[in-house]
Amino acid sequence: MTWNRVLFSVVTFIALVLCTSIPQGVNAADGAEKAIPAKFIAAWNSHDPAKMLAIFTDDVYYEDVAFGEISHGKAELSKFAASEYDGVPDLELKLVRASIDDGHGTIEWTFTGTDKAVYKTGKKFTVRGVSVVDVRGGKISRSLDYYDISTVMRQVGLLPAQ
Length: 162
Known about the structure:
By secondary structure, the chain is an alpha+beta fold. It has helices at residues 3-21, 28-45, 49-53, 73-87, 149-155; strands at 56-64, 69-72, 92-101, 104-114, 124-136, 139-147.
């Protein structure tokens, strides 16, 4: 084997090792995106609007689609969060699954609580839902919550059982 062939073989081997051991398309933001779902659930479960707001951008767009509630910016979102905590003081979200990639994703959750001030029935309910999110700089910049409000209304006695 000639010196050129040995050198070529060594260089090729090193290049192959480097190419297969360095993940393509991975950057620091990916790690921040992967942490968003757990932070989202923990933030809501904190029952503290200030902690909840920490995971959102200053110019956040937040929409509770079922109720038609839209919050622009952290000040409006803080009011919305406070009303949720007042209306459902034992509010608890559980993460079902999530997928966030390249700044967009979904967070599927289960919301459980007691209706104290929304419909004022005092009854417990559980509803599955999903938040469709956009992420910028490791924070949520847009979130749209989708769930079946009729499921909640049936469980609190405002609609007949199916």
